[in-house]
Specification:
Length: about 180
Amino acid sequence: MYDYVQISTINDFIFCQRSLYFHSIYYTFVDKQYKAKPQVAGTIAHEATDTGRYSSQKKFLQAMEVFSHAYGVIGKIDVYDKETKVLTERKRKINRVYDGYRFQLYAQKLALEEMGFPVEKMFLHSLSDNKKYEIHFHGPDLYAFEKTIEKIRAFNVAKSSPKQNIQKCRNCIYRELCRREQ
Ligand code: SF4
């Protein structure tokens, strides 16, 4: 039996392993207490789906809890269209399709399919410029995804010393907290 990995931590972990530590510690805090401004805006962008305002049409599953026993992940999807079988994850602004974004969608897709909802297409939707990026999923992607989940599960902050990357740290939502720990 293993601990389920929160889908929302995957992007943090790929960005910087150390950020997983802060995500875990502050997971129960009210977001606005520790998130920097761009991330608060991103959270607000999600509120339409979290509160079910995306659409009242029954064909959409919105902000639904999903989990995969096979891959040991749990979390929420953003929007899934039952008719077209399209899964969409909306973000406030996407400047670049990071691996963390893709892996979050993989986790959602695998969990949805285990629950009986096939996913034929996946998109990242950048709300501020209304751009959509199709995300593909092939065999090597599954292997890389599984390896990442294994690493997250095995992560121990006391035994790891992630390399510091000043540019990443400047853009990190946990930078204020992390600075106090360094
Ligand atoms: S501030 Fe830097 S080292 Fe600390 S969690 Fe963020 S990216 Fe990682």
